[in-house]
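Entries read chain and fold; for instance:
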Amino acid sequence: MLEAILHPLIEFVTETIGSYGVPAVFVLMLLESMGILIPSEAISPFAGYLVSEGKMGFLAAVTAGVLGNLVGSWIAYFIGLWGGRELWFHYGKYVGVRAHHLQIAEKWFDKYGEFTVFVSRCLPVVRTFISFPAGTARMNFAKFSFYTLLGCIPWVFALTYFGYVLGENWTTIGDYLHYLDYAVAVALVAGAVYLFWRWRRSAA
């Protein structure tokens, strides 16, 4: 069942990026970050594969992915800020958003606070939907943007790099995603420790 759903999505991703290149990476990552059912695990790795074929620049692929992630998160944030949770709960189903996905993200945000926006980028489901509860909670926009950018850079970089390394076997990335999650988690924790250290130094 899951494969039957994912296959046409992956086919759509590859055809779109193959036809429109870097701008398509930006738009697809934007849609994914809005909560629409397009897996980033297909977008950036395929872009990485195109890099290995000399059809796309690595920096361009990563930049487009990061900016798409950021802008899509902004849109989701403002939907939560202006429309509230009920708007996405009511209309999200028309674009593939399930209520329980939003509820998972809300629980994470309620339990761990604003820092969840940063650490959630390596967590399945939560990373896609965390922007909505952040907007609903009226989290400071500058802080939200900073945490989002800081969290998505290692994720997009890692996905693109894996696609580059795997080349034409990029579709096998699912076999390595748990390693990727660990690597990104370590990078995020290291970043958090560094930020805490900088904050302590400035406060001293």
Residues 1-5 have pLDDT under 50 and may be disordered.
